[in-house]
Design brief:
Elements: E1 2-7, E2 19-27, H1 32-40, H2 43-50, E3 55-57, E4 65-73, H3 81-105
Length: 107
């Protein structure tokens, strides 16, 4: 499924000095690897349609797979929240448009 997340943990710096917001397509099924790999075959087209490079997260020994976009965020700064909310909503809509039809075609 798709979700928007605000996190105190920064997945790029692997620290909590600066948080992040992200929008992700999460795959957690018995066929996670197959579905992830099928989407990854379209990586270049998907990223072109979304207008950015994505993070393709396929950790060893785990069943859950994630494809996400992220940006640094200082979550204590309430003045930044409207812009962060706008970014997450826009990205969720774009993810839905780009991933929705592809996910429906997965076996």
């Amino acid at each position: 499924g798709m979700s928007a997340i605000a996190s105190l943990w920064n997945s790029v710096t692997e620290s909590s000095e600066t948080g992040e917001v992200r929008v992700e397509m999460s795959i957690y099924t018995d066929e996670s690897d197959l579905h992830f790999d099928m989407l990854a075959e379209e990586k270049a087209v998907i990223e072109e349609e979304l207008g950015c490079s994505l993070y393709w997260h396929k950790p060893e020994g785990k069943r859950q797979r994630k494809i996400y976009d992220r940006k640094d965020a200082i979550l204590d700064d309430r003045d930044s929240w409207p812009n962060l909310h706008e970014w997450m909503i826009r990205r969720l809509e774009e993810f839905s448009t780009v991933f929705g039809p592809r996910v429906k075609r997965l076996p």
